[in-house]
Amino acid sequence: MRFARTLRLTVPKSSRAPGEANEDALAHVIRRRYAIFATADGASQTIFAATWAEFLVAALCAVDFERIRAAADEQIARDAFLRRQVQQAAEQFRRHLPPHLPWYVELSLERGVAATLLVVIVLRRERLLVALAIGDCCLAVWSESNGHVHRFPYEAVDSLPRRPWAVVFRLDRADADVPTPCILRCPFALDRDMPAGQSSGRLFLALMTDALAEWFLRAYAAGERPHEELARLRRRTFARWVSRQRAAGQLRDDDTTLLLARVSWDKVGP
């Protein structure tokens, strides 16, 4: 198994003022035994949301392999991987804050800084994909040999929550609030839908924040092939593509982020 290409693409909402931070964050790391892909969407209504989202994805991509391997068991994934890394992000975020804050900033931080989160782990030797989601970021998974696209944690646009769960940092609490994640455990290399005689293929992973996920799920439900459209995007074309979709009323004007990975793999067994 190998990673042939990974694209990290993000465009801020058009109404964002110059110098104002894009509140989406994304990161990935590829090692010999595993790869991690993560995206977070900071809640605009909370202060320092962009910074909190950045610390979250950075911490999730800095995990050691033993916790990665433990996350393969969904019964302990939340504590062995997600919760411990979120607490690390909270400690780093707390140290990053200025030592003296205005009272109104302290009050806002006590109410909480929130971000939705999606992390995907690919274990090479185990040929396993594990995804954990809190909130309305979405994952799409598809292969070249199969027309079906697996959507996680929501399969239809109507199921996207209006008030999604989020990972929340509060200044007056030692630990961040980590809701129970939705968990996907997928032994994708054992592709039952691979055509007879085909010994290898490519798997695509698309991690999307909420605006892009909404577009994707709506297009997929309409019988279109949005996954193929995403697979054709490049760094030089993404901003123009987002602008066209917004102008056509197909894409909500919000921070728009895509992390697209292509995994090459071999069939297992005889």
Description of the structure:
By secondary structure, the chain is an alpha+beta fold. The chain is 29% helix and 31% strand. The longest helix has 20 residues, at 77-96. The two termini are 17 Å apart. The relative contact order is 0.20.
The largest pleated sheet is described as: 6 strands, antiparallel
Helical percentage: 25-40%
The structural class is alpha+beta
Rg, Å, rounded: 19 Å
Please indicate the percent range of residues in DSSP E strands (runs of 2 or more).
25-35%
What's the SSE pattern? EEEHHHHEEEEEEEHHHE
Number of separate helices: 7
Mean pLDDT: 87
What is the global morphology?
globular
- How many E-type strands? 11
Write the layout of secondary structure elements.
Layout lengths: L1 E10 L12 E7 L3 E9 L6 H12 L4 H6 L6 H20 L6 H9 L1 E11 L4 E7 L3 E6 L2 E7 L14 E3 L12 E5 L13 E9 L1 H12 L4 H6 L3 H13 L8 E11 L4
Antiparallel strand pairs: 1-11, 2-3, 3-4, 4-5, 4-8, 5-9, 6-7, 6-10, 10-11
Task: Summarize the model shown.
With 270 residues, the chain is α+β, with helices and mostly antiparallel strands.
Properties at a glance:
five-stranded antiparallel beta sheet; 270 residues; six-stranded antiparallel beta sheet
